[in-house]
Amino acid sequence: MEQKEQDIHSILKKYWGYDKFRPQQKEIILSILHAHDTLALLPTGGGKSICFQVPGLALGGTCLVISPLIALMNDQVQNLRNKGISAVAITSAMNYREIEIALNNAALGHVQFLYISPERLESEKFRQQISYLPITLIAVDEAHCISQWGYDFRPSYLRIAEIRTYFPSVKIIAVTASATRDAIADIQTQLQFTHQNVFRQSFERKNLRYVVQYEENKPERLLRIIQNIGGSGVVYVRNRRKTEEFSRFLNSKNISAGFYHAGIPSQDRAGIQQDWINNKTQVIVATNAFGMGIDKPDVRFVVHLDLPDSLEAYFQEAGRGGRDLKPAYAIALYSKTDTQSLRDNFAESFPDKDTIRQCYQAIYNYYQIPVESGEGLSVNVDLAEICRNYNLKQISLYNSIKFLEKEGYLALFDGGFEPSKVLVLYGKEDIYHFQVKFKNYELLIKTLLRSYGGIFEQYAPVNEKDIAFRIKAPIDLTIKQLQALDTQGVISYIPQTSLPKLVLLQNRLNLKWNELSFKHYATLKEKSLARLESVIHYVEEKNICRSRLLLSYFNETEFQDCGYCDVCVEKNKAGFNEDNLKQKITWALEQRSFTLDELAAILSKYPQKLVLETISTMIDEDLVVINENKSLSLGNVR
Ligand code: ADP
Questions:
Q1: What is the pTM of this model?
Q2: Does domain 555-634 have CATH number 1.10.1740.10?
Q3: Residue 58 C-alpha to ligand 1 middle, in angstroms?
Q4: For the stretch 350-369, what's the b/e string if a residue is b when 16 or more beta carbons lie within 10 angstroms of its beta carbon?
Q5: Whose CA is nearest to atom 18 of ligand 1?
């Protein structure tokens, strides 16, 4: 075995304890180690992170990882740290001082993995700061975000190519779980790959059984599904209210169910997830906020009671079933009104231009940011509060922000939970004098210094409840004291938050003189509509195998019918499968030769498309030959 291969195997064994790479992982890693820009497409749960973490370790120095999801970033950083690998995340939830400290550590070469949110790259200063770091590999997670027409475009991703100029010999590894053919080409062009280099694993999930059912009585049907299939499952619905309603319904039928959505306080979310992961609750009813970064192998069913906006999203959500490769079901239930409401929602999710202008102004007014300033600011955002103040509808504000994000004005990040943090700003000497002078702070300061090591150098995550307990004071007084110390500049205190963050990427425009850019408006609308229509097509189609339909959406065409989805099962029931048809054709041609039309007439009870496909396959396989007079007879191979 070549040296590099040995090295990466021992890294995998040493840090992860695994003996073997999964399909494609080794090829991807070696491609990077042989200094090729590399794009890796692996389905969710396929083991993408190892594809950049192993070469990151093999190359030494710092691997810069760009990732748009704070929760996922924090997760990965924690996992690496648990393995004794030094990893740091710079997210939009951090203030400039925290960033400064993290970057200083990285500059000293103390950081093996530096995770950053893409919008950091908008700042020229930040780009320069990272140019001094000993970076040996750039990893781009969720790489489809760079594709302008993709379902999750992030303008800041376009900046990644710019930082390449600082590190001309450093290679890029881009990974994603979803990319259509256009996106694959786009990702490589935008990231300035020297040559095209893609590794892709088929997105076929052999053990997933896709089922679509028309159903007016969804609760009853859901109940039967859960009773029949059994085991652990996820139920996706569109809004928060429904998560609670359906979980209550299931509990009332003796099926233990929890619910999950982005409005649940972060402290409770972890517990809800954990109960489900440990099978204390059988089912979790959730909005699409659930699932990212969750790696539960034994999910037996994923039921969609509402349809998602795109097949990309459907594929990701359904794909959370059967990670253990045992059979699992991906079931979508839809009723008469569903497809219409999907289209109606779509109309709402594209606010008109006036509404977008109004929302733009409301945001800047709310934070009292004057024109020509604001760039780089990161603020907690409470959408409901802004709506109350400016009389806006929340769905309009949210979708206007989504649009403004696509035009590069700002970026919205779903609030991952950030604990409270404290950094002591005074030097050791000064803090001593301060304590002596202000006795009523003495206990608090002493407790901080004693309980949180390194608090002079780095922000320490603190827990106000613990501190209050230790200084034997009520919690609200403790918080007030921390705030007072912050105001006086003794410490920097950042209270915990789980609110989403809004990062302003440009200075405020004066809309009297400048028009907002609507460059992408028309195309975005068109592309989103096309994605939505694909979902509707998926549920309404009755003749094409579901798995094949999904795969063809991701431009994979070389596949047989899965044999398990509702379409295949129906066909099989009716005897409409290819094998059965091949037999019938063979019998007919054993009697005499027929023209194509004659044969089609004999087999008229079979779907015509299937007949034509089967004959064409038999011709390819030389089972059937075309005679000079265009009639068909049996071939020699049998
Ligand atoms: P993704 O980012 O593609 O969703 P992850 O990188 O989180 O997936 O990996 C999913 C799970 O598979 C993780 O628990 C990971 O440790 C595991 N895994 C990855 N590669 C291997 C491997 N070669 N052998 C065994 N388990 C692996």
A1: 0.73
A2: no
A3: 18
A4: bbeeebbbbbbebbbeeeeb
A5: 47
